[in-house]
Amino acid sequence: MGSKQPKRRWRDAPSPCIDVCKYPDGGFCKGCGMLKKEKKRWKRLDGRADRQPFLETLLERLTSQGEKRVQRWVKVYSRKCDKKSVPNPLEKLDLP
After folding, report:
1. Cα angle, residue 94 at apex, residues 20 and 12 outer, rounded to 5°
2. CA neighbours closer than 13 Å in the CB half-sphere of residue 84
3. Are residues 60 and 70 in contact, defined by beta-carbon separation less than 8 angstroms?
4. How distant, in Å, are the alpha carbons of 54, 65, 93 from that of 12?
5. What is the separation of C-alpha 20 from the centre of its chain, rounded to a whole number of angstroms?
6. What confidence tens digit (pLDDT) does each residue in 28-74 have?
7. Which of 7, 39, 53, 75 is the most exposed place for a label (fewest CB within 10 A)?
């Protein structure tokens, strides 16, 4: 018999923050592209209905800042999910 894998849950997804946290001119973070208030808001988002649109918007923002920027963030965030042994919600999204 195979072992049951835990159900993938959006609420288990870690914050999109990748621990760079630099805000030039008080704007978006250089690492993850979020505003400070968005980083705080992530904790209050509940499951797929809230977190999926948040991540989609974040990916659009990062994509508009350049292909290398979004690719770097996706790589580091995916590593973060692996390190925490949680499902990567990016696998459920259409990535650029």
Report:
1. 55
2. 16
3. no
4. 15, 27, 16
5. 13
6. 999 999 999 999 999 999 888 999 999 999 999 999 989 999 999 99
7. 7
